[in-house]
Amino acid sequence: MEVTTATTSAHERGRARIEQILRERSLYKILGVEPDATPEEIRKAYLKTSRLIHPDKFRNDEEATRAFQMAAA
Question: Which fold has domain 5-72?
Answer without folding.
Answer: Helix Hairpins (1.10.287)
